[in-house]
Specification:
The structure is a homotetramer.
Chain A lengths: L1 E5 L4 H9 L7 E6 L9 H4 L10 H5 L14 E4 L3 H13 L3 E4 L34 E4 L3 H17 L1 E10 L11 H4 L10 H12 L2 E3 L2 E3 L4 E8 L6 E9 L5 H9 L4 H4 L10 E3 L8 H4 L2 H4 L2 E9 L3 E8 L3 H17 L5
Parallel strand pairs in A: 1-2, 1-3, 3-4, 4-5, 6-9, 11-12
Antiparallel strand pairs in A: 6-10, 7-8, 10-13, 12-13
C-alpha cells in the first residue's frame, strides 16, 4: 500500500518515517511538509532527531506541499500541527484517502473513530460504509489518553469503571519541535500543558464508548486530570487513582491487566506488541528510561497497583509518547484498518 | 539562646547552619555529626553544597558526636537521619533540651506536637507544662506535608475539608546526600519514594487536628497521595484536588489563601514570611525554579485554582523543600516556641 | 541618570530590568522591545523568567518600539538580538545616547571600545573626545570572553601571555529565549554554538590590546576555542590551558589572580564585585550551581590551577553568563563610563 | 567458551550480562559479585538499570563470591571496582584464566597488553607465550581513552602525531552506581573526575606504542587532558585539538578516519562494528543522545574536523562509554583473543 506522511519533519513525522522504513505492508512514497521545505530532498530539510539513522530511501524523497491533488495515496498518516491539520486532513479524506491522524482537530467529530486498536477496534465500523472514491479520517487519541485508555480498558471489562483521577508527568517530545525552550524547563517543572487536561478528561470517554448504530455513545466515566511537563526526552508517566463499579481485588486487577489482549494481537498486526500491557512488581517501577522501550515502545507499563483510600485503587501507568502514544499508535490504527479492508 | 545542630553535615543540617549565621535570637554554638567526623573543624568535614558561602564562624566549630551530656544547649535543632534520630532526640530531650526535629521518628508520638506555625501553634501547649530540667520534642512535618497543610489550612477554616488527592513531583534535595544516584534519575522519573505517601496521607490529619486536653484529635480528612521523584534540585510540586464540606467559590478560595496569616506573622518572628501563601494567576505558575525562593523560601505558592470534575477543586502547590519544608520550617517552629517561652 | 533598555523582554533585558530596580545612579525610564509588544505595559508582555520578582515600577512602564527619536535618554542599555542590533544602536548613538550594548554587532568596530572594566578601562578614552550632541557605542564582550579575559588579565600582567586553549561548557540562558529546544538538549550535549568559537578566539585580543592613539592594537595572544552547550540554566565553565611568556609558579599565578583589582574596585562602582576573581582550592571547584552567584554573580571563579604538559598551566574558569557575562557586565561598563564623565 | 563475569551487578557488569545473552562463541556460566549478594539468584540482587530486559538465563544464575577456585572458567570478564580488582584479577590469572578487565589496576603493568582491537591487536603477542595452566590479564583502556585512541590511530598512521589537547564532557554511567549523587550534578557541571586526566594523558601512549620484543615502547605523543562530568546518562564527548608531524589536509584526515578498519573487521568478530569510526559532516554533530548507539554502541563518532590556530586541527569525538568504552570494548578484546587462540 503506498503511503503519504503529512507533517513529515516534526518529531512524530520523523517517527513515522523511521517506522515505515521496513514495513511489510506499507510503502512510504510521499513526504509532505511546510511550503518552506517543499521541493528539496527530505534528508536536506529534516533536522533528524532520532537515535536510529535516517532511512536512506526516505532521505532521497523530495518533500512536497501537503495538498491531496486528484489521486492521493490510499493511506495518509498525518503528523500535522493542530493549527493546520483540520482542513488539510478533510481535503485528503474528501479526495479519497484514508487519513490516520495524530492531530487533535477531528478527534471528537461524531463521524471520526477515536481508536486504540486493542480497546475499541469495532469503532472502525463508523467508516466502513463509505461511498466509492470517498476517504475517511481515523483519529489516534492524545498521547496520554492512549496509555490511560489501554490501562483502564481491562479494568472496565472486569469490574466496570466509575471515576478516575490522573496526574501526569509528560516528556518533552510530546511538545514537538521546537516545543519547550530548554531554559524554561532547566531545573524546573511546568505544571501546565495547554489543552491537555481537557483532552485527558474527554477522550477516554469516547474511546471506552459504545458503538450505537452510526454514533459512539460516550462512557459515563468521570476523569479529573492534572498535567505537568518534566525535563525528560520520552515517556509519559501517569499517576492514576480509580474507582470500580464492582468490588475488585489486587489479584483480579493484576490478572485483568497482564492478560489483556485485543484484535491487533489476534491478527498479529506488524506493529502490535505481544503484550499490550506489561505489569511490573518492583516497588519503583515503571520508569521512563527503563521501560518506555518495552515491546519496541508499543507496550504500556503498569506498576504500583495498590489500594487508594479515596477511590479504591491506585496505579502508575507509563507509555512511550511518540511511539505507542503517537506514530506507533497511529500506525497500528492504520494496520488495523488495512486488515479490516478499509484501505482501498 | 545557645543552639546545637544535630546531623549538621547533611543537606538539611547545612541549611540550619546557613540560616543561623546572623540570627537575631539564636546563636549556633555546637555542631554534631557522625563519629567519623567528630573532632575536626566543620569546614573541613562538610561537603558544603549551598550556593551561599559557608559561614566562617561555623566553619571553625569543631564537630562533636551527638551526645547530650549533662547540660545540653536549651535549644537543639535536629537534622538527623531517620534511622538514628529516635533515641538520640529522646536523650537530648530527657537531658533538658527543647529539640525541634526534622526527622520523622517522633512525628506521630502522642506527646509530640507536629507543628506548622501558621496552622496549629496552639499544639505547642502539649509541651508547655513540663517539669523543671525536662525538655521536649517538637516535630517539623514531612517536607511535602508542610506545603500541603499550609495550603489546606485556610480552605479548612473557610469551607471545611472533606477529602483530598495529592500527586507530588519532589526534588532531589529531599532525599539528602548521597541520596538518589544521578544515573538513576537521568532522563527519568522515579514514581516511588519510600514511606512518603504514608506520611502525606497521615500527617495533615494531625496538623489540622484539634487540641483536646492533653492530646491531639486528628482531623477526619481523607488524603490519597502518589509521590514521585524528578530530577530538579529544590522545590516540591503538589497537584492537589480537594472536596470542601461547604460550597466554595473560586473567589472565596482565592481570598482565603491570599489573606491567610498566622501567629508567626502576628509575632513578626525572624523567619516568618510576610505572606505565608502566595497565590499566582499565571496559567503556568507556580514553577520550582521561578517561585521556590519567594519570601526567602518560606512562602508556599498556590496556582491554577480551578474546578475539579471529581472532587470540586484543583490547585497546584509549590514549596521549597529544604527551606519551608525542612530547616526553615523547623527554625520557625523554634522561633515560635521561643516566643511562647518554651525554650528554657 | 535616565536610562532606556532596548530588547527588554529577552533574558538579558530582564536582567537589566532587575539590576536597575534600586540602582543608586541610574533610573529606568524607558523599555523598548519589538513592535509586537509596543504599547502595552511591560508586566503584561514579558514572560518573566527570573527567580526574583518583576519590579513593580518596571511592570507598569509602557513598552515602546526601539526608536531613538530626537532626544533619547543619555544612557541606553542594549540587549537587542544580534540580527537587528547594528543599525538601531548606531541610530541611538547618532541621536546622542551613550549606548552600552551586549550585542555582538559593533564589538570589533575600530571606534568602539570592547570593555571589561577591571581589565581595559583606558579603552574608554576612544570615545572621550566626541562632539556635542553626539553619542557613542561601548561594547560588552561575549559572555564567555568576559570570564576568559578577566582570568587571563592578571596572568598577562604578571607573566605575559603567549597562547591559550579554551574549551567551554555553556549554559542555556546564553542562547536566550526561546533558544535551544528542550528536546534537543535532553540527555544530551551539543558540541557547537554558532559564531562562538570565532568570538572567543578574537575578542580577548582586543580586550587585552593596547590603546595606541585613536585605535586599539590587538594583543598577539593566540587562542583556540571549542564551545559546547550543556543543559544547565546559568553559568559558563571554561577549561583553559595557557602558555606564559615568562616562567610562572603556581603560587605566583594564584596570587596574581586572587589579588587582582581594577578601576571598578577603586571607584567602588555600585555593581563592582569586591573580588573580581575568586580562587578556589577545592579539587572539584568551581561548579556552576555552587559558585555562579558569588559576589552577586559578578565574580569570576578560578580553580584547579595546575601544570599542563602541553602549554604550561591549566585552570577552570566559571562565570555567570547573564550577570557578569551580560547584563551585569554591561551595567558595570555603564557605571564606569558614568564615573569617568562619559554619560552626558 | 564458558565465561565468568566479575563485578556483575554494577553498570559495566550489567552490560556484560546483556551482551553475552546471545553470544555466538561465549556462554555466560558464572556471575560473581560482592559477598553480600553471593548465594542469591542474580535476578534478585541486581538493580537492573538497562532499558533492555534482564536476560532470563542470567537472572537465574546464583551469584558467587569472586574467587578463582582451582579451575576457573577459561575466560573471565572483569568489571570489578578499581579498589579490589588488582589482587582478584591476578588470582584468576594465576589459576589459569584469561582475564579481560575493565578496571584500571593492571593497565600500565608492563606484561599486560592495553588493547583497542582495531589499533594495537599485535600487543596481544605479549601474552601469547605463556606456560600451560597459566592465564594472563588483558586490559581494556579507560572509557575516554578508547575513543581518543581510536580517533587518533588513523591520524597517527597517516600523518604522525605530535601533541594533543583533549577536554571531555563525560556521562554519569562512567561513574558507576551509586556514583555521582543526583543533587551534586543537578543544574550543574563537575569539572573534576579523580584520576581521569592522568589516565587520558598516559594510556594513549601505551595503546599507540610499539611492540618491541617483550615490552611496549610508549609513543612519545604528549597529551593534555581536562575532564568534566555532565548530567547525561551515556556518551562521552571529547573536544580534541592535535598537531601532526607531517602536514595534513582536511580531506586527508577525513578519509583516514572514515576508511579506518582493523583486525576485528577483517576477522568479522561478533562485536566488531562495520565502521569503527563514523565521520559526521553536520555542523553540530556528533551528539551523545543521537549518535552514541551507532553500530550498536561500538562506533566512535568524529565530527567538526576543522583547523586549530594553536595545534593545527580540531575535532569532536564521541563514544558510548559503557559499550565501546567499557563492556563492549572488553568483549571485543576477548573475541580478538579468542580468534587468535589465546583462550585456552
Amino acid at each position: 500500500v503506498p503511503v503519504a506522511v503529512l507533517g513529515a519533519t516534526g518529531t512524530v513525522g520523523q517517527r513515522f518515517v523511521a517506522l515505515l522504513a521496513d514495513h511489510p505492508s506499507f510503502e512510504l512514497v510521499r513526504l509532505c511538509a511546510s511550503e518552506r521545505t517543499a521541493g528539496k530532498p527530505y534528508g536536506e530539510v529534516v533536522r533528524w532527531a532520532l537515535a536510529e539513522p535516517l532511512p536512506a530511501r526516505a532521505a532521497r524523497l523530495v518533500v512536497e506541499a501537503p495538498e491531496p491533488g486528484s489521486a492521493p495515496e490510499p493511506l495518509v498518516l498525518s503528523a500535522l500541527d493542530a493549527a493546520v491539520a483540520g482542513p488539510l486532513e478533510t481535503a485528503f479524506a474528501e479526495a479519497g484517502a484514508l487519513v490516520v491522524t495524530n492531530a487533535s482537530a477531528h478527534r471528537m467529530d461524531p463521524d471520526v473513530p477515536l481508536v486504540v486498536p486493542e480497546v475499541n477496534p469495532e469503532h472502525l465500523e463508523l467508516v466502513a460504509e463509505r461511498p466509492a472514491g470517498r476517504g475517511a479520517i481515523l483519529a489516534n487519541p492524545n498521547c496520554s489518553a492512549i496509555g490511560l485508555a489501554l490501562a483502564l480498558a481491562p479494568i472496565e471489562r472486569a469490574y466496570g469503571l466509575d471515576r478516575a483521577h490522573v496526574a501526569t508527568l509528560q516528556a518533552l517530545s510530546g511538545a514537538g519541535l521546537p516545543g519547550v525552550p530548554a531554559l524554561a524547563i532547566a531545573d524546573n517543572v511546568i505544571p501546565f500543558i495547554r489543552g491537555e487536561e481537557e483532552k485527558l478528561e474527554r477522550e477516554p470517554r469516547k474511546i471506552l464508548g459504545r458503538l450505537a448504530g452510526e454514533r459512539i455513545e460516550e462512557h459515563p466515566l468521570v476523569v479529573s486530570a492534572q498535567c505537568t511537563r518534566v525535563g525528560i526526552s520520552d515517556g509519559h508517566t501517569a499517576l492514576v487513582s480509580f474507582a470500580t463499579r464492582r468490588s475488585a481485588t489486587r489479584e483480579g486487577l493484576h490478572d485483568a491487566l497482564a492478560s489483556f489482549r485485543g484484535e491487533p494481537q489476534e491478527r498479529r498486526l506488524p506493529s502490535a506488541p505481544a503484550r499490550p500491557i506489561v505489569v511490573h512488581e518492583a516497588e519503583d517501577a515503571p520508569q521512563p528510561r527503563l521501560h518506555r522501550e518495552l515491546e519496541r515502545g508499543m507496550a504500556v507499563s503498569v506498576g504500583r497497583l495498590r489500594p487508594c483510600p479515596l477511590l479504591g485503587w491506585k496505579m502508575v501507568v507509563l507509555s512511550h509518547n511518540t511511539l505507542r502514544g503517537a506514530a506507533g499508535g497511529a500506525l497500528l490504527v492504520a494496520e488495523l484498518a488495512h486488515a479490516r479492508g478499509l484501505v482501498r
